[in-house]
Amino acid sequence: MSEQMSFVHVFEPGGAPGGPTLLLLHGTGGNEHDLLVLGRALGPSAGLLAPRGKVLENGAARFFRRVAEGVFDLEDLAVRTDELANFVHAAAFEYRFDPRRVVAVGYSNGANIAGSMLFRRPGTLAGAILFRPMVPFEPATAVDLRRIGVFISSGRLDPIVPPEHPERLRQLLSNAGAEVTLHWHPGGHQLADEDLVAASEWFERTSLLPPPGEKFRRAGL
Ligand code: MLT
User: Quick one: which atom of ligand 1 is closest to the CA of 108?
Assistant: First the structure.
């Protein structure tokens, strides 16, 4: 396997060739298995690609370094974002999925590197579902995110994400041309069933999933 495939990861092929692949990005202290059930619920016939973050913070896996809670090491974030984007491209070649149909599904730290990927490597993702994201950084140059759909789910009582971040992230993504839905969950930082319901409804409304007829045909139903 190539150097670019050096992330520990799980890949589950999709049931519909040419269908979307969900890039599942766990939160701090998680691993490549954390979001598999969620991903399967969001996209029953989607491919699933779940890497484990390579940075260790007191033994907890993350996708990039931070200086303190909510204070990111931006140099490391840039390098790790490129590394992850290159991994996605290499994995598309290795596993023969369509690199133009990759949708990130990230929680917390995973949502933050997905947001970074949208701004720094905009060609990598066709869409993103971001649970409890922050603004990873303010892009210095214009980014073109037209035709990209982004769903953000933020907690009204989240003690980790400063309250102004979700709205600012929505604004930055919209300014770049993305179609953004900001959903407010009544709870805190933890993921809840309500997040999944709202994200699924959004995902079914987008053109990122294959039409149901195709899905059922491919599944042999
Ligand atoms: C981060 O470091 O990405 C955020 O503080 C969220 C977290 O992982 O706790």
Answer: 6
Task: Please give the DSSP secondary-structure letter assigned to residue 53.
Answer: P
Backbone angles phi, psi at 178, to 5 degrees: -70, 155
Q: Is 189 a catalytic residue?
A: yes
Instruction: Say if 145 falls within a structural domain.
Output: yes
- How far apart are the C-alpha atoms of 58 and 31, rounded to whole Å? 15
Provide CB contacts within 8 A for 139, sequence distance 6+: 119, 120, 172, 176
Considering the candidates 34, 116, 158, 185, report the single residue annotated as catalytic.
158
User: Does the beta carbon of 153 sit less than 6 angstroms from any atom of ligand 1?
Assistant: no
Number of domains in the chain: 1
For ligand 1, whether the C-beta of 116 sits within 6 Å is no
**What rounded mean pLDDT belongs to the chain?**
93
108 is catalytic: yes
pLDDT tens across 158-187, in order?
999 999 999 999 999 999 999 999 999 999
The answer to whether residue 74 sits within a structural domain is yes
